Amino acid sequence: MAESMVGLKRTHRCTEVSSANVGEKVTVMGWVQKRRNLGALIFVDLRDRSGLLQILFDENVIGKEGFDKAYTLRNEFVIAVEGTVNKRSGAVNENLKTGDIEVIAESLRILSESETPPFPIEENIPTKEDIRLKYRCLDLRRPDIQSNIIMRSQVATLTRAFLANEGFLEIETPMLTKSTPEGARDYLVPSRVHPGKFYALPQSPQLFKQMLMCSGYDRYMQIARCFRDEDLRADRQPEFTQIDMELSFVDVDDVIDVNERLLAHLFKEVLNVDVQLPIQRMTWQEAMDRFGSDKPDLRFGMELHDVSELVKNCGFGVFTSALENGGSVRGINAKGQGSMPRKKIDALVDFAKGYGAKGLAYIAINEDGTYKSSFAKFMTDEEMDALVKALDGEKGDLLLFAADRNKIVWNVLGALRVELADKMGLLDKNDYKFLWVTEFPQFEWSDEEERWVAMHHPFTMPMDEDLDKLESDPGAVRAKAYDIVLNGTEIGGGSVRIHQADIQSRMFKALGLTEETANEKFGFLLDAFKYGVPPHAGLAYGLDRLVMLMAKRDSIRDVIAFPKVKDASCLLTNAPDVVDEKQLKELSIDIAKEETEEKSEEN
Fold it and tell me: Between vectors from CA 372 to CA 367 and to CA 374, what angle results, nearest 5°?
C-alpha cells in the first residue's frame, strides 16, 4: 500500500551522505536496488541518480512494524527512510562511494510498489536494445545510461556558460519554417490555416543564424533541435541536437580559436583530459591521400600509399585498367597480419565490396621473407619487391591494394584501415585524437543529377585564390570550410559564408540555380543581404556524437534520453502512429490507401 511523503523532506541524495555525516540524522529517498534478509537484520541498497547507499533495518531500532514492512520490500519499490548515519559494522565496500557507511533506519515509508521489471536495473546488461527501448523509462534508471545523460547535461551547461563568457547571445530560431533544397529530405508539417501548404522542420538553423548576423547580433549560439528524414545508422537520428554558433567579422582562424578553447574546456571539466592546443590541421586533400577519409582516425597509422607509378606498366590488368581510366592504385600495410587465414582475407574482400571495390589484391609477407599473393603471377619479382618497399613491408605484414577511381579507392581503403584497426585492437576509447580538416572542395559532381552540387551548402565562401576558377574549373575550387574530427568521427563542421552579392550570384550559377529559383528558395535571406551584411562564419557540433565519444559509447542512442530506432520509430510511445480522421480532415489531408486494399475492394 503506497504511503504519502507528507511531513518528510529529503536531506541528501544517496552518495551525498558520507563519513562526515556519521552520527547525523538524514532522510533519503529512492529505489530499492537489492534487499538482503539476514534474519534479525535486513540490508537494503537504496539507489538514486547519484548512486547507492546501504540501509540497515534492525528490529531493535525501527520496531516490529517497521521491520515487517522492510521485509516486504522488493526491487524497484520507491521508499523514504529516516535514520542515523553510522560507520559500517561489516566489511567496507571499496567499490562504492558510500562503502564505509550505512544508515540505521528509524522509520520507513513505502512511497510506491513495483512489479518485477522486465530486465535488471544494472550496468552493462545483455538485454536486447529493442526491449530496453520499449521500457526506456526503466532503462534510463540504469547507472551507465544515467551517467551518459548527466554528462550530456553537463556538456550543455558548460558550453552555454563558456560561450556566454565569449560574448555569444543565446537566440532561438523557429521550428516551423520553409522547406529549402540542397540538403537531406525535410520533415513536413501540414498547415490547418493554409490548406495544402506545409511547414518544414529545420534541418539546421543555417539561414536564420546568417540573418541574425545581418541583424547585428554579432555572436549567436543555440543548442538547437534539428530534423532530417534520412536513413539511420549508429550515429544518426531523425531528430538530433546541435551546438550551433555564428560569428561576425571573423575568418577561419577566429572560429577555430574559440572552438579549440571550448573543446579544451569541456574535456578538462568533464573528463579531466588535457586537449593539446593548437589542434592539428590537415587539408582535405592530404586527409584523403593519407587516410582515404575526410574524417581520419589518427589513433593509429596504417596510412595509404599511392603505388600507381610503380604498377603503370605491370602485367596485372586490374591495376593497369584502373590507371587507364584515370584512377589510381593504393595500398595499406596491416602490420603483423601476414599470417591471416585465407577465410579472414576473403571476409575483408567482401567488406571492401560493400564500399564499391570490385575486389582486393594482397601480398602476405611470410616469416621467411617469401610472398604469398593473389596477383604475383602477373608481376615481376622486381615489381613485387618495389610494392613491398613502398609500403614499408616487413616479415609478417599483410599488404592490401585497391585499384579503381580515386573516390572508390579512398572509400575502400579508408573504411578498411578502420575495420582492421578495430580487429587489431588499435582503437583505444581513452585516447582522444582531434583534427581540423580544412580546404574542402567547394563542389562535388552528382552523377544522379548530372551537375555540380555544393559539398557543404550554397552559402559557403570559396577560398580567395580559387575565385577565378568558379566558372572555368568548379572541381578545383576549394572552400573556406572546416570540420572538427575526433577519433574518426566528424563532431562538427562549418564554414565562412559568402557575404558579397556578386560571388553569391556566381555560386548559384555554378550550381545550375537560376536567379528566379534562388529567389524562390532563399529570397528571404538574399533580401536580408541587400541591406548591409557583415562578413560572417559559423560552426555546428553534433552534441549527440560529441557526448557519445566522451562517454565512450558506440551509439548515440545511449546518450539520448528517448531515441528512435533504425526505422525512425519510437518503441516507447509507438510513434509514428495513425491519427484521427477528424484531424486529417482539418488539415485537408486524404490518406492514399494501399494498393492491395484497393484491389481487394475491387474484387
Answer: 155
The dihedral formed by the CA atoms of 371, 377, 380 and 383, expressed in degrees to the nearest 10: -60
- Is 254 labelled a binding residue? no
Q: How far apart are CA 439 and CA 455, in angstroms?
A: 11
H/E stretch holding 262: helix 252-271
Q: Is 109 annotated as belonging to a binding site?
A: no
Query: Is 230 annotated among the ligand-binding residues?
Result: yes
How far, CA to CA in Å, does 583 sit from each of 192, 575, 594?
Answer: 9, 16, 20
Terminal Cα distance for the chain, rounded: 58
Q: Looking at residue 239, what DSSP letter applies?
A: E
Partnered with residue 403 across adjacent β-strands are 329
User: Which grid cell is 209?
Assistant: 543564424
Cβ-in-10-Å burial (0-12, 13-18, 19+) of 80 comes to buried
The tens digit of pLDDT for each residue in 487-520 reads: 999 999 999 999 988 898 888 888 888 888 888 8
* pLDDT value for 517: 83
Nearest to 134 by CA among 570, 554, 557, 559: 570
328, 308 Cβ separation under 8 angstroms: yes
Is residue 152 a known part of a binding site? no
Which residues of the chain are modeled with pLDDT < 70?
181-183, 233-235, 594-603
Task: Establish whether 182 is an annotated binding residue.
Answer: yes
> Does residue 228 have a known ligand-binding role?
yes
The second-level CATH assignment, the architecture, of 300-427 is 2-Layer Sandwich (3.30)
Burial 17-37 (b: 16+ CB within 10 A, else e): beeebeeeebbbbbbbbbbee
CA distance 446 to 19: 66
Cα of 603 vs its chain's centroid, Å:
50
Q: Would you report the helix, strand and coil content of the chain in percent, each value rounded to 5?
A: 35, 25, 40
User: How many Cβ atoms from other residues are within 10 Å of residue 81's Cβ?
Assistant: 25
CA nearest neighbour of 333 among 410, 394, 375, 409: 394
Q: Is 194 annotated as a binding residue?
A: no
Domain limits, the chain: 24-112, 300-427
281 is in an annotated binding site: no
Topology of domain 24-112, CATH = OB fold (Dihydrolipoamide Acetyltransferase, E2P) (2.40.50)
Per-residue three-class SS string for 538-580: EEEEEHHHHHHHHCCCCCHHHHCCCCCCCCCCECCCCECCCCC
> What pLDDT was estimated at residue 307?
96
Could you give the angle at the alpha carbon of 173 between the alpha carbons of 172 and 177, nearest 5°?
155
490 is in an annotated binding site: yes
